[in-house]
Write a structure and sequence with these properties.
With about 270 residues, this protein is mainly alpha-helical. It has two domains: about 70 residues, Winged helix-like DNA-binding domain superfamily/Winged helix DNA-binding domain (Arc Repressor Mutant, subunit A, Orthogonal Bundle), CATH 1.10.10; about 170 residues, Alpha Horseshoe (Serine Threonine Protein Phosphatase 5, Tetratricopeptide repeat), CATH 1.25.40. It is about 65% helix and about 5% strand. It has eleven helices and two strands. Strands 1-2 form a two-stranded antiparallel ribbon.
């Protein structure tokens, strides 16, 4: 439960989602009451280990964690990303680079597989990739070597990601590695043609042309506000997935109760 509240923070975790995540297909007889009791126990435990600096409060739509002075890697990551939205150039790049230092592997890697929730992990991974992409775009102009490293990681995760390859080519071009950049372009061009039957898009072709002309690439990356919009959309996807799962659990619960109903006899 604490893990779900941390992942959801600063947004509330809906009660149906908590019930679904904690008990799955085997909810208690009275899920709402059991959840409230579990919340009370968790509050008491948090007070004991944190000295009342961390709490949980009831919010519209569910429960929300109040971390107080306590910090989590995910919370610090999101705080720095939020700060970067108001910055530009090197300052924004350095803030996002600091945020990415809080990632040290896959989300929930120490949680048993049967307790993991795929939508949560997918959204967290998408959140991380979005920030890496933005950081790499900024690095093209202010720290191209770092941009190469960041963009190459995205390309390894998705060999058909044309946007990531375009950023890689830009960064390589700004380091002076024009031959390597052209080799990367040829590799993605062949991969797209052989495996997908398509040609590179306009973005890649435009970067290739700039590199062939031997110019430095300094086109401003997309505004940070777009990244914020993308992250908000990913959060909505997560909320929708939780709502659908909760609805499914509720339907199953109703069907189970209907199966247990007995016809009322004529005598009664």
């Amino acid at each position: 439960m604490l893990g779900i509240l941390i992942i959801r923070w600063p947004n509330p975790a809906p009660a149906p989602a908590l019930i679904s995540e904690i008990w799955g297909m085997c909810p208690p007889r009275n899920p709402s009451a059991t959840l409230q009791l579990s919340i009370c126990k968790l509050r008491k435990w948090l007070r004991q280990i944190t000295g009342a600096t961390v709490g949980i409060r009831k919010a519209a739509g569910g429960y929300i964690l109040e971390p107080g002075a306590a910090k989590t890697d995910l919370g610090e990551f999101r705080r720095l990303v939020k700060e970067a939205e108001a910055l530009a150039g090197r300052e924004a790049f350095e803030r996002l680079a600091r945020a990415l230092e809080f990632w040290s592997g896959s989300p929930l890697s120490d949680v048993p597989d049967h307790r993991k929730n795929a939508p949560y992990i997918d959204v967290l991974e998408a959140e991380r990739r979005q920030v890496i992409r933005r950081c790499a775009q900024l690095a093209v102009a202010v720290a191209p070597d770092a941009g190469v490293t960041l963009a190459r990681g995205l390309c390894l995760e998705d060999p058909f990601d044309e946007e990531a390859h375009a950023i890689l080519l830009e960064a390589l071009g700004n380091t002076g590695a024009h031959a390597e950049a052209l080799a990367e372009f040829d590799a993605i061009r062949q991969r797209l043609s052989t495996e997908l039957g398509i040609a590179p898009g306009a973005r890649l072709l435009r970067v290739q042309e700039w590199i062939l002309r031997g110019r430095s690439y300094a086109i401003p990356p997309e505004p940070c506000s777009r990244m914020a919009i993308a992250l908000e959309r990913e959060q909505r996807v997560l909320d929708l997935a939780s709502d659908l799962e909760s609805l499914k659990e509720r339907v199953n619960e109703i069907l189970a109760r209907l199966d247990n109903l007995r016809p009322v006899s004529a005598e009664s």
